[in-house]
Specification:
The protein is α+β, with helices and mostly antiparallel strands and 189 residues long. It contains five helices and eight strands.
Length: 189
């Protein structure tokens, strides 16, 4: 950081710690014990697509790598904001494998210098009453937050705060609630 940055109060963004995703299996055990939410087996990575053949080839290679494991095919979609979502599904009891798959996607994009294009990753949970929950990892912050959608593009804020409390010792939770963005229509949720 230059002295101009210090003088003007600029800070460098937090570097994403992709290995933070490996804390999710342990956190899921805590989450299930504390709240009854269990993994659904769905997870997704959201990123901004780049133009050009190199990015298209990388995206295809990632999908082929994950599909080669014999599981369901990877689903690729675009949202209304132009972001690409890569959805991975595993059996709910293969949560560790799901996290490994998501990490592989993120690492592949980062290794190919597309790390700045990464927006977030999410893993989905549900409780016995059918309520939905996602734990979202923000790359640019290096933190997680819970997202509990309700029908009609509403969210269950009290549940999100309960989940924050339950996982505070397990995951780096995003302290700024203004960064807890709703991910309406996110694949796998």
């Amino acid at each position: 950081m230059s002295w101009w940055d210090v003088l003007l109060g600029r800070t460098e963004p937090a570097k994403a710690d992709l290995d933070a995703l490996f804390a999710l299996p342990s956190a899921s055990v805590t989450l299930q014990a504390a709240t009854g939410f269990a993994p659904t087996g769905s997870g997704a990575v959201c990123f901004r697509s780049a133009e050009g053949g190199a990015f298209a080839t990388l995206q295809r290679d990632i999908a082929e790598l994950l599909d080669s494991g014999g599981g369901p095919p990877v689903e690729i979609s675009q949202d209304s904001y132009g972001y690409t979502w890569l959805l991975v599904r595993r059996a709910p009891d293969q949560f560790g494998d799901l996290v490994t798959d998501l990490h592989a996607v993120n690492s592949s994009l980062e290794a190919a210098d597309f790390g700045p294009s990464l927006l977030c990753s999410l893993v989905s949970f549900t409780d016995p009453n059918g309520r939905k929950l996602a734990l979202v990892y923000l790359y640019k912050q290096g933190t997680f937050y819970p997202f509990a959608p309700l029908p009609g593009q509403r969210r269950e804020n009290t549940l999100e705060l309960e989940i924050r409390g339950a996982l505070a010792g397990e995951l780096p939770i995003e302290p700024d609630l203004g960064r807890w963005f709703p991910l309406w229509g996110a694949p796998g949720l």
